[in-house]
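Researcher: Before we compare anything, I want clean individual predictions. No alignment, no superposition, just each chain on its own. First chain goes here; please echo the sequence and then give the structure tokens.
Model: Echoing the first chain and its structure:
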Amino acid sequence: MNRTQPNFDVEVFFDGGCPLCRREIDMLRRWDRQKKIRFTDIESGEVNFDALGKTYHEFMAEIQGRLPDGTWIKGVEVFRRLYAAVGFGPLVAISRLPVISQLLSAGYWLFAKNRLRLTGRCNAETCAVKPAPRA
């Protein structure tokens, strides 16, 4: 059976309602001259989350990516794949060094946890402090 090879290296699922996220995605679109990235805005209303096997909340909690073979990636690894796709392979290699990798992961985790607050998008549902479960 002859299957057509996907025409991208990585698909990124991004929050198009996030000003900081859009700025980075716009920059990556400009740099992606060979069209190696598939960009999917989870806020577009066109994403079928059930078909992807993930919830909207999973996509909002942490950046998600998908490789042509269907493998899911998330967090800093998505950024590594995006920047490698636009030609920043040496920088990506440096980002894999143990201490740098740990710092990047911790920094991204902090950003992801506070992204809505940092971009002025908190509301009662998205940023509410949930009460602790009762014992």
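Researcher: Okay. Second chain, same rules.
Model: Second chain and its structure:
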Amino acid sequence: MADTRKNASEAAKESADAGREAVDAAASAAQDATVVGLDGVRRVTEQVTQALGVAGQNNEAVHQASENLGALAETSTVLTRGIQDVSREWLRLSQHGLQKNIEGLTQLARCRSIPDLVAVQSDLLRNNWHYMIDVSRWAAQCSIEIMNEAAEKIGSETKQAADRTRRAA
């Protein structure tokens, strides 16, 4: 029984480590794609304004568009980092939950009577519900913090752009 629990625990840890590496790789790829995409949009904007001949007439508008794209890039970096952090934590919490379930199965296997089985099973059910509620609460709080940080980043960039526009006018 101890070997089975140890093997299951090791398998859960290996699975969580592999998942963590996959999340890191996906988040890094998403961040790189966002930066490349925004650079591409910035270049296209500059080329279109030059082709239409407005670059000399309205440099401020081109500069403003470029700064807005920069703000989007910074915000997407915040969101990507937040998603990566949340994914990492979900994996850790999943590993913890798996370990608790393995321990629960061990407790069930030790039961020698129906009343013991019912008591252990109801404790496991109650603990899993509490765990699920706690994890959901944590995920909601974390999501709110990430969105607030992203909104703050966009808000500060928008305020700076508005201030520059007022000074230029």
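Researcher: What stands out in the second chain?
Model: The first helix runs from residue 2 to 51. Additionally, The helical segments are 2-51, 59-110, 114-168.
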